[in-house]
Every structure is written in C-alpha cells, then in structure tokens.
Design goal:
The chain has a five-stranded parallel beta sheet with strand order 2-1-3-4-5, sandwiched between helices. It has helices spanning 10-21, 35-45, 63-71, 86-94, 109-121, 130-148, 156-160, and strands at 2-6, 27-28, 49-53, 76-81, 99-102. The chain has seven helices and five strands, in the order E-H-E-H-E-H-E-H-E-H-H-H. Helix 2 (35-45) packs parallel to helix 3 (63-71) and helix 5 (109-121) packs antiparallel against helix 6.
C-alpha cells in the first residue's frame, strides 16, 4: 500500500515517517513539504493513502483537499491539524477528507488506523479496487474509533460511493 506523507514541519514529518515505516505492507513515498509536491507525487505514484497537514505551504484552505479528491477520488485522505473542532472536522470532511486527526491529541491513533488499513490492503481480504480500500477504511476507522473512543465521522459521499 503506497502512502504519501505531507507536512511542513520536520519534527512532525520525522515522527510520521518513523511511525508508519514500521507498518508491514506499507510503501512510503518521498515525503512532500509543499502542496505542489503532493499533487506531483499523486500523479506520478498513485498513492492509496495521503496523510497531509491542512496548513501545508502552498495550499489555500480547503481548495487543496478538493483538488486532491478530484485528482484521485479513490485515495484515502487523512488530514492532521491542530484545529480539530467538530465544526472544522465537518468542513474538512465536506472538502474531501476521509478523516481529520488532531496532531496533539490523536497522533498515535493514526498508527493503529494505518496498521488496520495495511492489513486490509494485503492478504486474503485485499480489496479489489482502491474505491473498496476507501470503503474498508470507513469501516476500519469506525471500528477503531469505537474501540479507543475516538470520535470520527464518515462523509456521506464515502458511504454512498
């Protein structure tokens, strides 16, 4: 499962890389530090998962999420932010994010979610398509959210698509 990580902070980027590279069945792509690098990497490498900081350099609010969703509708888009109020999460979801995690309080939940997603994308239960991977992600994040008390929400378009 190809994963693209994008964050403007070296500290956060290093932590994400260390956490995710230890997950079996994950192929980390060259990290992106700018919005244009995210788009270029998506075109070249077709990642299954994109983990991005919302306020990455070169982005203009939710426009980047909308562009990413249009560019790769099948990709799982996870946003890491320090602004994770319910209203803000809703706005990000409506703009194309599959999940929004608070960098300060929910950072470690990403490891568990990514592990589940990687297990689902390999082996006997491997989804037939990336759209199936997004559906599996919706199910996985709900199950994990219930287990650890993480409040997550699923975009109506994800459930219907």
């Amino acid at each position: 499962m190809k994963v693209l990580i994008a964050d403007g902070s070296n500290v956060v980027m290093d932590r994400l890389l260390d956490m995710i590279q230890a997950i079996p069945h994950v192929e980390l792509l060259v990290p992106a530090r700018h919005a244009q690098e995210i788009l270029e990497s998506m075109r070249r490498h077709d990642p299954a998962v994109v983990i991005a900081e919302f306020h990455i350099p070169g982005s203009k609010g939710t426009a980047l999420l909308q562009t990413l969703r249009r560019a790769k509708p099948s990709a799982v888009l996870i946003v890491m932010t320090n602004l994770a109020s319910p209203e803000y999460r809703k706005r990000l979801s409506e703009s194309g994010a599959d999940l929004c995690l608070d960098k300060t309080r929910e950072f470690t939940h990403l490891l568990e979610l990514m592990g589940e997603l990687a297990r689902c994308s390999s082996g006997k239960n491997k989804p037939a398509t990336k759209r199936s991977l997004r559906k599996q992600f919706a199910s996985t994040k709900l199950q994990v959210g219930l287990q650890i008390g993480l409040i997550v929400f699923i975009a109506a378009s994800l459930l219907g698509g």
